[in-house]
Queue: 2 jobs
Job 1
Amino acid sequence: MSTRFTAKTVLVTGAGSGGGREVALAFAREGAAVVVAGRGAAPLAETVRLIEAEGGRAAAVTADVTDSASLAALVARTVELFGGLDVAVNNAGVILGKGPLGDVDEADFRAVLDINVTGTWLSMKHEIGYMRANGGGAIVNISSNLGAHSRLANVGAYVTSKAAVSALTRNAALDHIGDGIRINAVSPGPLDTTMSLRSGETEAGRADRMKVENPSGRIGTLTEFAAAVLYLASDEAGFAVGTDLVLDGGASA
Protein backbone atom coordinates (compact mmCIF):
# COMPACT_ATOMS: atom_id res chain seq x y z
CA MET A 1 0.00 0.00 0.00
CA SER A 2 1.25 3.48 -0.90
CA THR A 3 1.77 5.92 1.96
CA ARG A 4 1.86 9.14 -0.07
CA PHE A 5 -0.61 10.83 2.27
CA THR A 6 0.42 9.48 5.66
CA ALA A 7 0.06 12.20 8.32
CA LYS A 8 -1.92 14.36 5.87
CA THR A 9 -5.44 15.68 6.38
CA VAL A 10 -7.70 15.68 3.34
CA LEU A 11 -11.09 17.34 2.87
CA VAL A 12 -13.43 16.02 0.15
CA THR A 13 -16.72 17.74 -0.65
CA GLY A 14 -19.53 15.85 -2.36
CA ALA A 15 -18.22 12.70 -0.72
CA GLY A 16 -21.50 10.95 0.04
CA SER A 17 -21.52 8.86 -3.15
CA GLY A 18 -19.94 8.19 -6.52
CA GLY A 19 -16.63 9.75 -7.40
CA GLY A 20 -16.36 11.76 -4.20
CA ARG A 21 -16.75 8.66 -2.07
CA GLU A 22 -14.18 6.77 -4.15
CA VAL A 23 -11.70 9.64 -3.83
CA ALA A 24 -12.17 9.73 -0.05
CA LEU A 25 -11.59 5.97 0.18
CA ALA A 26 -8.47 6.22 -1.98
CA PHE A 27 -6.91 8.93 0.18
CA ALA A 28 -7.64 6.94 3.34
CA ARG A 29 -6.03 3.85 1.81
CA GLU A 30 -2.87 5.89 1.32
CA GLY A 31 -2.70 7.01 4.93
CA ALA A 32 -4.67 10.25 5.05
CA ALA A 33 -7.16 11.29 7.68
CA VAL A 34 -10.20 12.26 5.62
CA VAL A 35 -13.07 14.64 6.32
CA VAL A 36 -16.01 13.88 4.04
CA ALA A 37 -18.47 16.71 3.49
CA GLY A 38 -21.84 17.13 1.84
CA ARG A 39 -25.45 18.02 2.52
CA GLY A 40 -26.72 14.56 3.52
CA ALA A 41 -25.66 13.09 6.85
CA ALA A 42 -26.62 9.48 6.05
CA PRO A 43 -24.57 9.08 2.84
CA LEU A 44 -21.56 10.71 4.52
CA ALA A 45 -21.87 8.34 7.45
CA GLU A 46 -21.78 5.42 5.03
CA THR A 47 -18.59 6.78 3.44
CA VAL A 48 -17.01 7.00 6.89
CA ARG A 49 -18.15 3.46 7.69
CA LEU A 50 -16.53 2.14 4.51
CA ILE A 51 -13.26 3.93 5.28
CA GLU A 52 -13.16 2.72 8.87
CA ALA A 53 -13.99 -0.84 7.76
CA GLU A 54 -10.68 -0.79 5.87
CA GLY A 55 -8.80 0.54 8.89
CA GLY A 56 -8.75 4.18 7.78
CA ARG A 57 -9.53 7.38 9.66
CA ALA A 58 -12.43 9.61 8.64
CA ALA A 59 -15.11 11.95 9.93
CA ALA A 60 -18.27 13.34 8.37
CA VAL A 61 -19.25 17.01 8.43
CA THR A 62 -22.44 18.28 6.81
CA ALA A 63 -21.92 21.47 4.81
CA ASP A 64 -23.52 23.54 2.07
CA VAL A 65 -21.06 24.79 -0.56
CA THR A 66 -23.34 27.72 -1.42
CA ASP A 67 -23.07 29.06 2.15
CA SER A 68 -19.83 30.83 3.04
CA ALA A 69 -20.37 30.49 6.79
CA SER A 70 -20.97 26.76 6.40
CA LEU A 71 -17.69 26.37 4.52
CA ALA A 72 -15.76 28.44 7.05
CA ALA A 73 -17.13 26.14 9.74
CA LEU A 74 -16.20 23.08 7.65
CA VAL A 75 -12.57 24.11 7.39
CA ALA A 76 -12.44 24.99 11.09
CA ARG A 77 -13.97 21.63 12.01
CA THR A 78 -11.51 19.78 9.76
CA VAL A 79 -8.61 21.43 11.55
CA GLU A 80 -10.19 20.71 14.92
CA LEU A 81 -10.71 17.03 14.10
CA PHE A 82 -7.34 16.17 12.56
CA GLY A 83 -5.01 19.06 13.28
CA GLY A 84 -4.73 20.70 9.86
CA LEU A 85 -5.71 20.80 6.21
CA ASP A 86 -3.19 19.64 3.64
CA VAL A 87 -5.35 18.69 0.65
CA ALA A 88 -8.83 19.73 -0.46
CA VAL A 89 -10.87 18.13 -3.24
CA ASN A 90 -13.82 20.26 -4.34
CA ASN A 91 -16.10 17.67 -5.88
CA ALA A 92 -19.61 18.91 -5.05
CA GLY A 93 -21.66 19.57 -8.18
CA VAL A 94 -25.01 19.07 -9.89
CA ILE A 95 -26.58 18.75 -13.32
CA LEU A 96 -29.84 20.68 -13.62
CA GLY A 97 -31.69 22.51 -16.37
CA LYS A 98 -31.47 19.92 -19.11
CA GLY A 99 -32.86 20.90 -22.50
CA PRO A 100 -32.22 23.68 -25.04
CA LEU A 101 -30.78 26.74 -23.31
CA GLY A 102 -33.66 28.91 -24.44
CA ASP A 103 -36.03 26.67 -22.50
CA VAL A 104 -34.02 26.20 -19.30
CA ASP A 105 -35.74 27.32 -16.12
CA GLU A 106 -34.03 30.37 -14.63
CA ALA A 107 -33.98 28.88 -11.13
CA ASP A 108 -32.23 25.74 -12.43
CA PHE A 109 -29.62 27.77 -14.30
CA ARG A 110 -28.87 29.91 -11.27
CA ALA A 111 -28.69 26.84 -9.02
CA VAL A 112 -26.13 25.16 -11.29
CA LEU A 113 -23.92 28.25 -11.26
CA ASP A 114 -24.38 28.73 -7.51
CA ILE A 115 -23.35 25.17 -6.65
CA ASN A 116 -20.82 24.35 -9.35
CA VAL A 117 -19.09 27.71 -9.77
CA THR A 118 -19.69 29.90 -6.72
CA GLY A 119 -19.56 26.80 -4.51
CA THR A 120 -16.15 25.88 -5.88
CA TRP A 121 -14.90 29.43 -5.42
CA LEU A 122 -16.22 29.70 -1.85
CA SER A 123 -14.72 26.32 -0.99
CA MET A 124 -11.34 27.45 -2.31
CA LYS A 125 -11.63 30.79 -0.55
CA HIS A 126 -11.83 29.21 2.89
CA GLU A 127 -9.37 26.41 2.09
CA ILE A 128 -6.84 28.93 0.79
CA GLY A 129 -7.36 31.11 3.84
CA TYR A 130 -6.18 28.29 6.11
CA MET A 131 -3.48 26.92 3.82
CA ARG A 132 -1.90 30.31 3.15
CA ALA A 133 -1.43 30.87 6.88
CA ASN A 134 -0.19 27.34 7.55
CA GLY A 135 2.51 26.44 5.07
CA GLY A 136 0.52 25.79 1.90
CA GLY A 137 -1.23 22.74 0.48
CA ALA A 138 -2.88 21.30 -2.60
CA ILE A 139 -6.36 21.79 -4.00
CA VAL A 140 -7.98 19.71 -6.74
CA ASN A 141 -11.22 20.96 -8.27
CA ILE A 142 -13.48 18.61 -10.19
CA SER A 143 -14.52 20.09 -13.51
CA SER A 144 -15.62 18.14 -16.61
CA ASN A 145 -14.57 17.37 -20.15
CA LEU A 146 -17.76 19.25 -21.00
CA GLY A 147 -17.09 22.97 -20.81
CA ALA A 148 -13.62 24.19 -21.70
CA HIS A 149 -12.84 21.02 -23.67
CA SER A 150 -16.06 20.03 -25.46
CA ARG A 151 -19.76 20.79 -25.62
CA LEU A 152 -22.95 18.70 -25.64
CA ALA A 153 -26.45 19.71 -26.65
CA ASN A 154 -29.15 20.14 -24.02
CA VAL A 155 -26.87 20.42 -20.99
CA GLY A 156 -25.76 24.00 -21.56
CA ALA A 157 -26.15 25.13 -17.97
CA TYR A 158 -23.81 22.38 -16.78
CA VAL A 159 -21.37 22.97 -19.65
CA THR A 160 -21.23 26.68 -18.85
CA SER A 161 -20.61 26.02 -15.17
CA LYS A 162 -17.80 23.56 -15.79
CA ALA A 163 -16.08 25.84 -18.30
CA ALA A 164 -16.08 28.41 -15.51
CA VAL A 165 -14.62 25.88 -13.02
CA SER A 166 -11.75 25.17 -15.41
CA ALA A 167 -11.00 28.89 -15.81
CA LEU A 168 -11.43 29.53 -12.09
CA THR A 169 -8.95 26.77 -11.30
CA ARG A 170 -6.27 28.13 -13.61
CA ASN A 171 -6.60 31.67 -12.35
CA ALA A 172 -6.57 30.59 -8.72
CA ALA A 173 -3.47 28.54 -9.45
CA LEU A 174 -1.67 31.63 -10.74
CA ASP A 175 -2.86 33.73 -7.82
CA HIS A 176 -1.81 31.35 -5.07
CA ILE A 177 1.22 29.31 -6.13
CA GLY A 178 3.27 32.05 -4.48
CA ASP A 179 1.48 31.16 -1.24
CA GLY A 180 2.68 27.57 -1.52
CA ILE A 181 -0.72 26.30 -2.68
CA ARG A 182 -0.90 24.15 -5.82
CA ILE A 183 -4.32 24.26 -7.47
CA ASN A 184 -5.29 21.94 -10.32
CA ALA A 185 -8.38 20.30 -11.80
CA VAL A 186 -9.50 16.93 -13.08
CA SER A 187 -12.00 17.05 -15.96
CA PRO A 188 -13.60 13.61 -16.30
CA GLY A 189 -15.82 12.39 -19.07
CA PRO A 190 -18.47 9.71 -18.49
CA LEU A 191 -17.70 7.73 -15.34
CA ASP A 192 -19.29 4.67 -13.81
CA THR A 193 -21.88 6.64 -11.80
CA THR A 194 -25.59 7.25 -12.10
CA MET A 195 -24.85 10.71 -13.52
CA SER A 196 -23.72 9.16 -16.81
CA LEU A 197 -26.91 7.13 -17.24
CA ARG A 198 -29.55 8.57 -19.54
CA SER A 199 -33.17 8.54 -18.47
CA GLY A 200 -34.34 4.92 -18.29
CA GLU A 201 -30.94 3.58 -19.37
CA THR A 202 -29.41 0.47 -17.79
CA GLU A 203 -25.72 -0.01 -17.14
CA ALA A 204 -25.64 -2.58 -19.94
CA GLY A 205 -27.27 -0.10 -22.28
CA ARG A 206 -24.74 2.54 -21.32
CA ALA A 207 -21.90 0.10 -22.00
CA ASP A 208 -23.27 -0.54 -25.49
CA ARG A 209 -23.61 3.20 -26.10
CA MET A 210 -20.02 3.84 -24.99
CA LYS A 211 -18.75 1.30 -27.51
CA VAL A 212 -20.02 3.67 -30.18
CA GLU A 213 -19.72 7.11 -28.58
CA ASN A 214 -16.37 6.98 -26.80
CA PRO A 215 -13.07 6.43 -28.65
CA SER A 216 -11.91 4.10 -25.88
CA GLY A 217 -15.10 2.06 -26.26
CA ARG A 218 -15.96 2.12 -22.56
CA ILE A 219 -16.94 4.08 -19.49
CA GLY A 220 -14.29 5.45 -17.13
CA THR A 221 -13.88 3.70 -13.79
CA LEU A 222 -14.00 5.42 -10.43
CA THR A 223 -10.61 3.89 -9.64
CA GLU A 224 -9.12 5.71 -12.64
CA PHE A 225 -10.80 8.95 -11.58
CA ALA A 226 -9.52 8.71 -8.01
CA ALA A 227 -6.00 7.90 -9.22
CA ALA A 228 -5.94 11.13 -11.26
CA VAL A 229 -7.09 13.19 -8.29
CA LEU A 230 -4.54 11.64 -5.95
CA TYR A 231 -1.74 12.20 -8.43
CA LEU A 232 -2.44 15.93 -8.69
CA ALA A 233 -2.69 16.19 -4.90
CA SER A 234 0.58 14.33 -4.34
CA ASP A 235 4.17 15.56 -4.11
CA GLU A 236 4.81 13.66 -7.34
CA ALA A 237 2.87 16.41 -9.12
CA GLY A 238 4.85 19.18 -7.46
CA PHE A 239 5.41 21.03 -10.76
CA ALA A 240 1.77 20.76 -11.85
CA VAL A 241 0.18 24.17 -11.34
CA GLY A 242 -3.05 25.12 -13.11
CA THR A 243 -3.25 21.76 -14.85
CA ASP A 244 -6.68 20.69 -16.12
CA LEU A 245 -6.29 16.94 -16.48
CA VAL A 246 -8.84 15.60 -18.98
CA LEU A 247 -9.86 12.02 -18.29
CA ASP A 248 -12.41 11.02 -20.92
CA GLY A 249 -11.12 8.15 -23.04
CA GLY A 250 -10.38 10.47 -25.95
CA ALA A 251 -13.86 11.97 -26.24
CA SER A 252 -12.53 15.53 -26.43
CA ALA A 253 -9.19 14.73 -28.10
Note: The radius of gyration is 17 Å.
Job 2
Amino acid sequence: MSHRNAPLTETGRLRLARCVVEEGWPLRRAAERFQVSPTTAQRWAGRYRASGAAGMADRSSRPRHSPRRTPTRTERRIIKVRLLRRWGPARIAHFLRLVPSTVHRVLARYRLARLSHLDRATGRVIRRYERERPGELVHVDIKKLGNIPDGGGHKVHGRSQGGRNSSAHRDPARPRTVHGRPNLGYSYLHTAVDDHSRLAYSEIHADEKKETA
Protein backbone atom coordinates (compact mmCIF):
# COMPACT_ATOMS: atom_id res chain seq x y z
CA MET A 1 0.00 0.00 0.00
CA SER A 2 1.50 3.31 -1.09
CA HIS A 3 1.88 6.27 1.23
CA ARG A 4 -1.14 8.58 1.01
CA ASN A 5 1.06 11.47 -0.19
CA ALA A 6 3.07 9.43 -2.71
CA PRO A 7 2.91 10.92 -6.23
CA LEU A 8 3.23 7.47 -7.79
CA THR A 9 1.84 4.02 -7.06
CA GLU A 10 4.17 1.02 -7.08
CA THR A 11 3.11 0.29 -10.66
CA GLY A 12 3.87 3.86 -11.71
CA ARG A 13 7.27 3.74 -10.03
CA LEU A 14 8.09 0.52 -11.85
CA ARG A 15 7.10 1.98 -15.22
CA LEU A 16 9.20 5.09 -14.55
CA ALA A 17 12.22 3.05 -13.48
CA ARG A 18 12.04 0.78 -16.53
CA CYS A 19 11.84 3.78 -18.85
CA VAL A 20 15.07 5.12 -17.37
CA VAL A 21 17.01 1.89 -16.81
CA GLU A 22 15.86 -0.37 -19.64
CA GLU A 23 14.78 2.09 -22.32
CA GLY A 24 17.43 4.72 -21.64
CA TRP A 25 15.18 7.74 -21.09
CA PRO A 26 16.90 10.84 -19.65
CA LEU A 27 15.89 11.57 -16.06
CA ARG A 28 14.33 14.92 -16.92
CA ARG A 29 12.20 13.42 -19.71
CA ALA A 30 10.99 10.61 -17.45
CA ALA A 31 10.27 13.08 -14.65
CA GLU A 32 8.14 15.24 -16.97
CA ARG A 33 6.32 12.18 -18.34
CA PHE A 34 5.33 10.93 -14.85
CA GLN A 35 4.95 14.44 -13.36
CA VAL A 36 7.59 14.11 -10.65
CA SER A 37 10.90 15.80 -9.94
CA PRO A 38 14.16 14.56 -11.52
CA THR A 39 15.35 13.69 -8.00
CA THR A 40 12.36 11.39 -7.53
CA ALA A 41 12.92 9.77 -10.90
CA GLN A 42 16.58 9.18 -10.02
CA ARG A 43 15.64 7.61 -6.69
CA TRP A 44 13.26 5.06 -8.18
CA ALA A 45 15.66 4.25 -11.01
CA GLY A 46 18.42 3.64 -8.45
CA ARG A 47 16.19 1.36 -6.38
CA TYR A 48 15.25 -0.58 -9.51
CA ARG A 49 18.90 -1.12 -10.38
CA ALA A 50 19.63 -2.33 -6.84
CA SER A 51 16.55 -4.43 -6.03
CA GLY A 52 14.46 -4.78 -9.15
CA ALA A 53 10.67 -4.63 -8.91
CA ALA A 54 10.82 -5.36 -5.15
CA GLY A 55 12.53 -2.01 -4.61
CA MET A 56 9.38 -0.13 -5.68
CA ALA A 57 7.60 -0.88 -2.39
CA ASP A 58 7.41 1.72 0.39
CA ARG A 59 10.04 1.50 3.08
CA SER A 60 9.58 2.28 6.72
CA SER A 61 10.42 5.87 7.67
CA ARG A 62 11.44 4.75 11.16
CA PRO A 63 15.13 5.50 11.82
CA ARG A 64 17.45 2.55 12.34
CA HIS A 65 19.01 4.14 15.38
CA SER A 66 17.44 6.51 17.95
CA PRO A 67 20.27 7.66 20.22
CA ARG A 68 18.03 10.19 21.99
CA ARG A 69 15.22 7.76 22.73
CA THR A 70 14.16 7.43 26.37
CA PRO A 71 16.19 4.67 28.08
CA THR A 72 14.41 1.38 28.62
CA ARG A 73 14.85 1.63 32.39
CA THR A 74 13.08 5.00 32.44
CA GLU A 75 10.26 3.64 30.28
CA ARG A 76 9.75 0.78 32.72
CA ARG A 77 9.56 3.23 35.64
CA ILE A 78 6.95 5.30 33.81
CA ILE A 79 4.84 2.24 33.02
CA LYS A 80 5.14 0.94 36.58
CA VAL A 81 3.93 4.23 38.08
CA ARG A 82 1.09 4.41 35.59
CA LEU A 83 -0.15 0.88 36.32
CA LEU A 84 0.20 1.13 40.10
CA ARG A 85 -1.03 4.68 40.72
CA ARG A 86 -3.01 5.41 37.56
CA TRP A 87 -1.66 8.94 37.20
CA GLY A 88 -1.61 11.17 34.15
CA PRO A 89 1.56 12.23 32.24
CA ALA A 90 2.00 15.52 34.11
CA ARG A 91 1.82 13.93 37.56
CA ILE A 92 4.09 11.04 36.56
CA ALA A 93 6.61 13.50 35.12
CA HIS A 94 6.66 15.52 38.34
CA PHE A 95 7.09 12.36 40.42
CA LEU A 96 9.95 10.98 38.27
CA ARG A 97 11.44 14.42 37.47
CA LEU A 98 10.87 14.09 33.75
CA VAL A 99 9.29 16.18 31.02
CA PRO A 100 5.51 15.60 30.57
CA SER A 101 5.90 15.27 26.80
CA THR A 102 8.41 12.45 27.30
CA VAL A 103 6.02 10.58 29.59
CA HIS A 104 3.19 11.07 27.12
CA ARG A 105 5.26 9.64 24.25
CA VAL A 106 6.15 6.57 26.28
CA LEU A 107 2.52 5.93 27.28
CA ALA A 108 1.40 6.37 23.66
CA ARG A 109 4.20 4.10 22.37
CA TYR A 110 3.04 1.25 24.60
CA ARG A 111 -0.63 2.00 23.87
CA LEU A 112 -1.65 2.47 27.47
CA ALA A 113 -5.27 3.59 27.58
CA ARG A 114 -6.26 7.09 28.65
CA LEU A 115 -7.32 7.46 32.28
CA SER A 116 -10.80 8.43 31.10
CA HIS A 117 -11.06 4.97 29.49
CA LEU A 118 -10.11 3.13 32.71
CA ASP A 119 -12.06 2.07 35.74
CA ARG A 120 -10.32 3.92 38.57
CA ALA A 121 -11.06 1.13 41.08
CA THR A 122 -9.69 -1.80 39.05
CA GLY A 123 -7.58 -0.14 36.35
CA ARG A 124 -9.33 -2.16 33.65
CA VAL A 125 -10.36 -0.70 30.31
CA ILE A 126 -14.02 0.28 30.28
CA ARG A 127 -15.83 -1.44 27.44
CA ARG A 128 -18.95 0.48 26.49
CA TYR A 129 -21.89 -1.76 25.80
CA GLU A 130 -24.38 -1.05 23.04
CA ARG A 131 -27.21 -2.80 21.26
CA GLU A 132 -26.66 -4.09 17.74
CA ARG A 133 -29.43 -2.10 16.00
CA PRO A 134 -30.90 1.41 16.40
CA GLY A 135 -34.24 1.42 18.19
CA GLU A 136 -33.63 -1.94 19.89
CA LEU A 137 -33.32 -0.25 23.29
CA VAL A 138 -34.22 3.34 24.19
CA HIS A 139 -33.42 4.92 27.55
CA VAL A 140 -35.93 7.47 28.83
CA ASP A 141 -35.21 9.97 31.59
CA ILE A 142 -37.33 12.79 33.03
CA LYS A 143 -36.08 16.02 34.57
CA LYS A 144 -38.47 18.20 36.60
CA LEU A 145 -37.95 21.94 36.11
CA GLY A 146 -39.70 24.69 38.06
CA ASN A 147 -41.40 27.32 35.92
CA ILE A 148 -40.23 30.87 36.53
CA PRO A 149 -42.90 33.61 36.35
CA ASP A 150 -42.48 36.72 34.21
CA GLY A 151 -40.18 39.18 35.88
CA GLY A 152 -38.16 36.54 37.71
CA GLY A 153 -38.55 34.31 40.75
CA HIS A 154 -37.47 34.47 44.36
CA LYS A 155 -33.85 35.27 43.47
CA VAL A 156 -35.06 38.54 42.00
CA HIS A 157 -38.01 39.42 44.25
CA GLY A 158 -37.09 37.53 47.43
CA ARG A 159 -38.65 34.49 49.06
CA SER A 160 -41.70 36.31 50.33
CA GLN A 161 -42.60 37.64 46.87
CA GLY A 162 -41.20 34.93 44.60
CA GLY A 163 -43.11 32.04 46.13
CA ARG A 164 -42.27 28.45 45.33
CA ASN A 165 -43.46 26.03 42.70
CA SER A 166 -44.78 23.32 45.02
CA SER A 167 -47.13 21.82 42.44
CA ALA A 168 -48.68 22.53 39.09
CA HIS A 169 -52.11 24.14 39.17
CA ARG A 170 -54.93 21.81 38.29
CA ASP A 171 -57.23 24.32 36.58
CA PRO A 172 -55.43 26.57 34.11
CA ALA A 173 -58.29 29.04 34.33
CA ARG A 174 -57.84 29.43 38.08
CA PRO A 175 -54.13 29.28 38.87
CA ARG A 176 -53.01 28.95 42.45
CA THR A 177 -51.23 31.90 43.99
CA VAL A 178 -48.49 32.12 46.59
CA HIS A 179 -48.04 35.49 48.33
CA GLY A 180 -50.14 37.16 45.65
CA ARG A 181 -48.13 35.75 42.73
CA PRO A 182 -49.25 32.90 40.45
CA ASN A 183 -47.82 29.48 41.20
CA LEU A 184 -46.74 28.23 37.78
CA GLY A 185 -45.83 24.70 38.84
CA TYR A 186 -43.37 22.51 36.95
CA SER A 187 -42.49 21.46 33.45
CA TYR A 188 -41.06 18.00 32.74
CA LEU A 189 -38.23 17.46 30.28
CA HIS A 190 -38.53 13.99 28.73
CA THR A 191 -35.30 12.76 27.10
CA ALA A 192 -34.92 9.57 25.06
CA VAL A 193 -31.48 8.18 24.14
CA ASP A 194 -30.97 5.38 21.61
CA ASP A 195 -28.61 2.75 23.03
CA HIS A 196 -26.91 1.92 19.72
CA SER A 197 -26.34 5.34 18.15
CA ARG A 198 -26.47 7.44 21.37
CA LEU A 199 -28.84 9.79 19.54
CA ALA A 200 -30.77 11.94 22.04
CA TYR A 201 -34.21 13.54 21.65
CA SER A 202 -36.04 15.75 24.17
CA GLU A 203 -39.51 17.22 24.60
CA ILE A 204 -41.07 19.37 27.33
CA HIS A 205 -44.41 18.17 28.75
CA ALA A 206 -46.77 19.17 31.56
CA ASP A 207 -46.55 15.86 33.45
CA GLU A 208 -44.30 12.84 34.01
CA LYS A 209 -46.87 10.06 33.59
CA LYS A 210 -45.85 6.81 31.98
CA GLU A 211 -48.25 7.38 29.09
CA THR A 212 -46.52 10.67 28.29
CA ALA A 213 -43.08 9.09 28.54
Note: Residues 10-56 form one domain.
